[in-house]
Design goal:
The protein has 310 residues and is of the alpha/beta class. Helix content is 45%, strand content 12%.
Length: 310
Amino acid sequence: MPTATGSTTGRTIVITGAGSGFGAISARALARAGHTVYAAMRDVTGRNADRVAEAAAYAAEHQVDLRTVELDVLSQESADAAVATILAEAGALDVVVHNAGHMVTGPAEAFTPEELAAVYDTNVLGTQRVNRAALPHLRARGHGLVLWVGSTSTRGGTPPYLAPYFAAKAAMDALAVSYAAELARFDIETTIVVPGSFTSGTNHFATGGHPAEQTVIPAYEERYAGLMDQVSQRLAALAPADADVSQVADAIVEVVGAPHGTRPFRVHVDPANDGSEEVSLVADRIRTEFLERIGLADLLVPHLADRRES
């Protein structure tokens, strides 16, 4: 179990949306790296029971500390209960990985406001529920890491028919940036890992939602016939042959394993190179310069501030 001095091994981690995709792969990679990992997912005794069994089998086969915990990011009660379970079992929580997300595809006009709100609920409000459950513990310890799994769509190339997802990911990124400064004086570090488009190896496109209201779809199909398939094919064509979702897990493992206070603010994993990293370098530089200009440069790095500091 790590101490407040920041041991580089043996951290206790919770990762949301860890039933499949980036989450499941990252949970296994973190466990192999020697951490105690709670792969959080909803409905662990129902539709995800098989995934719970798979995680347990993986832990036994590889002799790693990979556990599962019920956590529905749409419920504050569920998030609170999950964190309470982790604290009761492990005694501490060091790292929160915000990975849960949901993608929908289709013309933006076709989605009702309620459908857009549902995407926002999972991708943005879900992180807030988990933070409200976990941060009191991390703040009391005066140490920790919050790692956000973002998307290059927030600043890079943005193909059409993914607007609700892109908008939610942009909102999550903005929330992460603000949280970084607000948690710095509690010695809680922030990293945003930014994956690009991986068209295979995850369930994003396969399990993505579609607009329930179909009345405007024919008008778009007339002008944009087969567009979503074209986008998927062209994104896949941009990726080099060695692009693999395990690269995202590797980046997360590297960030978590780095000594406290040395982690990068943002890490891109973008085989297609859609331009997000270039834009983010400018945006993050401006953020740094602005905080320095207004006398808040200390918010750029995690540290345990004196209670009187302002």
